[in-house]
Automatic annotation (TrEMBL):
It is an enzyme of class 1 (oxidoreductase). The gene is trhO. SUPFAM superfamilies: Rhodanese/Cell cycle control phosphatase. SMART domains: RHOD. Catalyzes oxygen-dependent 5-hydroxyuridine (ho5U) modification at position 34 in tRNAs. Keywords: Oxidoreductase, tRNA processing. This is tRNA uridine(34) hydroxylase. InterPro entries: Rhodanese-like_dom, Rhodanese-like_dom_sf, Rhodanese_C, TrhO, TRHO_N.
């Protein structure tokens, strides 16, 4: 067992006072040395957090102890180090940006458990549709899946016409952890698709529970790992180095922060280009120092774990004391 964990989860469940819950949630994370990104919205909760095994166990118990989130499903991965360098708990309008104006609590695609999904993926009457961004499916996707040239889920309405002719087929959507598909599948139903399913728990859960068969390449994730292995059955590499075009599934964020292109770059080219994706980016005056990974923490002035807190002064004092006790300030 590795000493740290990365936990991915979401839960659609109404939160009456997101600001108050955000502060309570934030305080728990600081007191338990957890880092990551968590979104609190009127429609629910979404997060990826990382910490020790003990602290992650405490966190999962804390979330599930709230009756609003008692049914939440956690995807748990072991890791050698903590996968984040900061903690951000933010209140937003949606737990995943979509602007699709659908409510998964009212209607969404039928959930397929990983074992059910594995049985269906080779069915010639099943159409797999990837609901992730272009840079994500460039480095990894299910064999034969339809992908869209979109940068985020808000662009889905611009691409639905590409599968219009498949309205009467069995459509199975998938994404990293399942959250995008809750709204994407609901949107497809609204657009007249008649038989819509979604992979419950996404690519990550499918890899953990079923070995990831027929997932080509690696899965893009939004922490300092950048990509993770999924397929333990028949793995292959589908992406090529952005610079030399050899087979490569090593994703890099361009060292030029004004570009920040998410592309595969092999180790040799990354060293030669100092982490940049083009000669122009290599010579850019704002270029970051390449650290060998291609992952860069966003700069923020005077970051502290209490950032964004909106509660009363006594709660702020409590949080500061907790941060001092854990050595995070």
């Amino acid at each position: 067992m590795k000493p740290y964990r990365v936990i991915l989860y979401y839960c659609y469940s109404p939160i009456a006072d997101p600001d108050a819950y955000r502060d309570e949630h934030h305080l728990f994370c600081v007191e338990h040395n957890l880092l990551g990104r968590i979104i609190v919205a009127p429609e629910g909760l979404n997060g990826t957090v990382s910490g020790t095994v003990e602290d992650c166990e405490a966190y999962m118990e804390y979330v599930r102890s709230d009756e609003r989130f008692s049914s939440v499903q956690f995807k748990i991965e072991e890791h050698d180090t903590i996968a984040f360098q900061k903690l951000h708990v933010r209140v937003k309008d949606e737990i995943v940006n979509s602007d699709l104006h659908v409510n998964p609590l009212v209607r969404t695609g039928k959930h397929l458990e990983p074992s059910e999904f594995r049985k269906l993926i080779n069915d010639p009457d099943v159409v797999l549709v990837d609901m992730r961004s272009d840079y994500e499916h460039e480095v990894g996707k299910f064999k034969g899946a339809i992908t869209f040239d979109m940068h985020n889920l808000r662009e889905l309405p611009d691409h639905v016409h590409e599968i219009e002719h498949l309205k009467d087929k069995k459509i199975v959507t998938y994404c990293t952890g399942g959250i995008k598909c809750e709204k994407a599948s609901a949107y497809l139903l609204e657009q007249g698709f008649t038989d819509v399913y979604q992979l419950h728990g996404g690519i990550i859960r499918y890899g953990l529970e079923e070995g990831g068969e027929n997932f080509d390449g690696k899965c893009y994730v939004f922490d300092n790992r950048i990509t993770v292995d999924v397929n333990k059955v028949n793995p292959t590499v589908i992406s090529t180095c952005y610079i030399c075009h050899t087979a490569c599934d090593r994703m890099v964020n361009c060292a030029n922060p004004e570009c920040n292109n998410h592309v595969p770059i092999c180790e040799a080219c990354a060293e030669q280009m100092e982490g940049a994706c083009t000669e122009e980016c290599k010579s850019h005056p704002a270029k970051r120092v390449y650290n060998g990974t291609g992952y860069y923490v966003a700069q923020s002035n005077h970051y502290h774990p209490m950032q964004g807190l909106k509660s009363q002064k006594k709660t702020i004092k409590h949080l500061k004391l907790a941060a001092q006790n854990t050595g995070t300030v």
